[in-house]
Amino acid sequence: MRWAWPQGYQPQTAPVHKVVAIDFGAKRNILRCLASAGCDVTVLPATATAEEVLALNPDGVFLSNGPGDPAATGDYAVPMIKQVLDADLPVFGICLGHQMLALALGARTIKMNHGHHGANHPVKNHDTGKVEITSMNHGFTVDSQTLPAGVVETHVSLFDGSNCGIRLADRPVFSVQYHPEASPGPQDSYYLFERFADAMAARKVPAQSACVNDY
């Protein structure tokens, strides 16, 4: 569970959503945030196949942060992500996971002249108009000029205008470049974990309704 005074971190004892997290270099606090949003998280290695992911019958898939060139990791991860997208599951990505989701959707990534590192990076949320104070650590960015139709740019850096978030226009698939789990705001961006949980909950409602209608 999220840190709270004076208890500190508490265990998740009543999870309601089953999440598979792909570990490209995941930070422990991301897993804590997922758990605090009601998720039972199973972590699979970066090389996991779509078949291995989907065999666990998850309610949603999380793509973690990590080091390096997203195109290099994407050589083996992007095919898996594309197949997960075909399964119509909610997907949430952070940092490297954001970049590889963009690659899987048909965009490109580029090396930045000056990377973003540290806390107190202002990011504007286009959906709400609010500014979030974020933590960042990346040297590559998604080229927003290459986002295909149906992919919406949701967040931008107020330092240099670089892309900091995307979502699909018609499905609960989204990601951000920054680190909401780092809490420099301190909780400006925790809503992203709640959005992911809400998307998984909404996906279950039609299935439950169909079961009721069968009787």
Order of helices and strands: EHEHEHEHEEEEEH
The unreliable regions are: 209-215
Counting DSSP E segments of at least 2 residues, the number of strands comes to 9
Distance between the termini: 38 Å
* Average pLDDT, all residues: 92
* Rg on CA atoms, Å: 17 Å
* Biggest sheet architecture: 9 strands, mixed
**Helical content (DSSP H or I, runs of 4+):** 25-40%
What's the helix count?
5
Strand order of the largest sheet: 2-1-3-4-9-8-7-5-6
**Based on CA inertia axes, which overall geometry fits?**
globular
Structural class: alpha/beta
Query: What proportion of the residues form beta strands (DSSP E)?
Result: 25-35%
Structure commentary:
The protein is an alpha/beta fold. The protein has helices spanning about 30-35, 50-55, 70-85, 95-105, 190-215, and strands at about 15-25, 40-45, 60-65, 90-95, 110-125, 130-140, 150-155, 165-170, 175. Strand 3 (about 60-65), helix 3 (about 70-85) and strand 4 form a beta-alpha-beta unit. Helix 3 packs across helix 4 (about 95-105). Mean pLDDT is about 90; it is low at about 210-215.
